[in-house]
Structures are given as structure tokens and as C-alpha cells.
Amino acid sequence: MTQVTSYRTQSGVTLIELMVAIAVLAILLALAAPSFSDLAQRSALRGASDNVVGVIAAAREEAIKRDQWVRVDFKKVGTGFCVGAVTVATATTAGCDCSAAACAVASYPEGERDLHRVTLTGDPTFGSDAGFVIDPKTGTLADIADGGSMQLGTSRGYAARVAINAMGRASVCTPGDKGIPGVKAC
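-> C-alpha cells emitted (186 positions)
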């Protein structure tokens, strides 16, 4: 007579296997956390610089469309900044205070959330001012000496420079070795 041996298979995991899996997952997350923070800062910086370029483009468009001078001003606000554009009577008229109220043509940011992780490093330099005026006839700067730039940065050292040339066109580049993927170096 033959004896039949029955083997039962167990399903599931032991407590030790579960603890090892959780420990490995915790180590992987700890290694990946700085990368996610860098990604978030680069993304916020790219978004802020793109929004500044958008305000400048909207100001050029409105100057031509309305056939009026448009002044674009930049201002430090705490650790952040704002940029605003408003129509003005002449090329020498003062612009709007973008920190006090939204400017009529365009402004950025719309709220504090938009400035998360991005600061204005240094003072904007546009000729001898913190802004410039767009000529309604040509869409260029009213004074070609007002071409200049402003630099944005993050706490981890990422930076983007927004430059405006005499034609009134804005461009973004990254100074230094901590660049933003897809953005040319300065």
C-alpha cells in the first residue's frame, strides 16, 4: 500500500517579508525626494519666466491694438516680484504699481500661489529704470536704451534670466551651470 502525502501551499507574505519590502520602499523614496524637489523648483521657475514673457507679449500686442503707449514695470515684493503693464499717455508717464492692484493691460502674479519657490534675484535693469515703454506704432521699445533683463531664482540655485531687446521681444535663458531643461544657456 502506498502512502499519499498531501502538501498545502501557503498564500500571502510573512511579517518579515512585508517589513523588508516597506524598508526598501522607504529607502527608494528617501533617495528620490530631492529629485522631486528639484523638478518642482525648475518647473515653478519655468512657469514664472514664461508668464513674465507672456505679460510682455500681451503689452506689445495691446500697444499696437489700442494705438497707445504701454508701460511695463517690474517690482520686488517681499521675497517675490510682480510685473504689470498699463496704457499711459506718454512715453514718460509713470506706470502702475503691480503690487497694489492688477494693472489694466496685463499682470503677474495673480496670487501668492503663483510665486511659490521663485524669487527676483537682484534688481531689474531696463535702461535706468525698473521698466520700459512700448511704442504703439512699432511695438518696439520707445527708448532702445531701455533693453535689459531681470533674473529669477530658486532656493536650490536654479536661475532664469528674462531679457528684453530693443525690438521689445522677450527671451529666456539660464545663466550658470544650474539650467532648466529645454532653455538655452546665457
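The longest helix spans residues 15-66.
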